[in-house]
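Q: I have 189 residues here and want to know how they pack in 3D. Can you give me a structure?
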Amino acid sequence: MYRYGQPDPYSPVAERRTLPLSPSQVKLIRAQLAQTGDLRAMAMFSLAVDAELGADDIVSLSVADVWEKGKLLKRPMLLLGKTQKRVSFRMCAYTRDALTRWIKTEGKTEHDVLFTSGRTDRQLNVGTFRRMVEDCIEAAGLNPNDYGPHSLRRTRASMVTGKVANVKAAKTVLGHEKRKPSIRDFGDE
């Protein structure tokens, strides 16, 4: 039964809300990716969690966005595609290691796209990124209906808000202009 304020499950455009991953779920997925040896998936998953970027922004990154003069930038500064805002972020040690190994193993230069298709040097598309995330979620034994690519964007913000229980902090971390999306994702102040 449809209730006011809830997405209509029968609507073809019903918006699916995804949950953020917990720190233990992130560790589990990273461990599984390390076992498979898929450097691209390791680097992409970890960067998506650390940078809190949407799928469109992750797949459109170039090596120059995170790499300069043969090493990773300490605090990359990116221009978001959707809002045209500048954002910066820090990477954890695992992400720095995975990205460095990915860039060096693939022999990428600052002029290359960071994440390419497995068969070509063309930019990875959002659909492939979504499938990679869903595969990681399923491999970890999680329900792919509860988690998805947007879960990666929300994960770090949920860790921050979990510590301070502050919607304003989530708004700042995620770069939301208005409080409504942050309240929708993380609850009342």
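Q: Anything worth noting?
A: The mean pLDDT is 80. The chain has nine helices and four strands.
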